[in-house]
Amino acid sequence: MILFPAIDILKGRSVRLLHGAYNRVTDYGEPVEMAKKWEAQGAEFLHIVDLDGAKAGMGVNSAVVKQIVQAVKIPVQLGGGIRTLSDIAARLNDTGAARVILGTACCENPQLIAQAVSRFGAEKIVAGIDAKDGFVAVKGWLECLPLSPFELGKKMYAAGLRYTVFTDIGRDGALSGVNVSACAEMTKQTKLQCIASGGVSALSDLHALKKEGLYGAILGRAIYEKKFSVDDALKAISSKE
User: Fold this and answer.
1) Of residues 8, 52, 87, 172, which has the active-site annotation?
2) What is the pLDDT of residue 134?
3) Integer Cα distance of 129 and 103 in angstroms
């Protein structure tokens, strides 16, 4: 299982939101410094979200993302406001991200997904599926659609995608425990390789996700609040317990 330390960028700063609310922000400092810190602790991949971009529908913090990519040797997956083929090309080519996450576009422009896979390859594109009270949330989690996250996942697999970041918004940034059953169900129902996001609060969460065969997990507030280190987490999932 791959662990992805998260760096959410708002107004050029590394932050965490509570339940995805833009008015419930904790500032953790400079994004580049956080990236270096997680890499030093053994991270193999970074998960970056341009929060301003998610609301604006365009890359707002791309310059900061590029600085991160240039400052570390590990790959970066990037989300936030990526909704067209030109957006994808810009994030991959200009910022240097290894792959991009499409969220709102998965719902509003499904044809784009197949086009993106054809042009950039399935390894470069990830479906960002965010759930709130059992429904898909879009546009920076500000709107909900009458659509099940599992149904959306099936459509994304059919369009050629193989990876998803699945977020339970109700648990995001709350240190309330990850929704293991929903993440496992996402993999089972859709066949997508699932990266669990939202609520990882203890090493036991990671053990549970690994037991269910999850492809990856995003680490957020738990590592920022020093509940455990990235190194601790890597050792936990590599153990045979």
Assistant:
1) 8
2) 84
3) 6
Radius of gyration of the chain (CA): 16
Gap between the Cα atoms of 63 and 163, Å rounded: 26
Residue-wise pLDDT for 106-162, tens only, equals: 888 889 999 999 999 999 999 999 888 888 987 666 677 889 999 999 999 999 999
Using one digit for the tens of pLDDT, what is the confidence trace for 71-89?
A: 999 999 999 989 899 999 9
Alpha-carbon gap, residue 126 to 100, rounded angstroms: 6
Q: Where are the alpha helices (DSSP H) in 2-137?
A: 31-40, 51-56, 62-71, 85-89, 104-108, 110-120
Q: Is 232 a catalytic residue?
A: no
Q: Is the pTM of this model over 0.85?
A: yes
Over the stretch 22-71, which tens digit does the pLDDT of each residue have?
888 999 999 999 999 999 999 999 999 999 998 888 889 999 999 999 99
Range 30-62 burial, b when 16+ CB lie within 10 A, else e: ebbebbebbbeebbebbbbbbbbbbbebbbbbb
**Which residue in 50, 52, 130, 168 is the catalytic one?**
130
Query: Do residues 156 and 111 make contact, with C-beta atoms less than 8 angstroms apart?
Result: no
Q: Using an 8 Å Cβ cutoff, are 177 and 156 in contact?
A: no
Is residue 27 among the annotated active site residues? Answer: no
The alpha carbon of residue 21 and the mean position of all alpha carbons in its chain are separated, in whole angstroms, by 16
Distance CA 213, CA 210 (A): 5
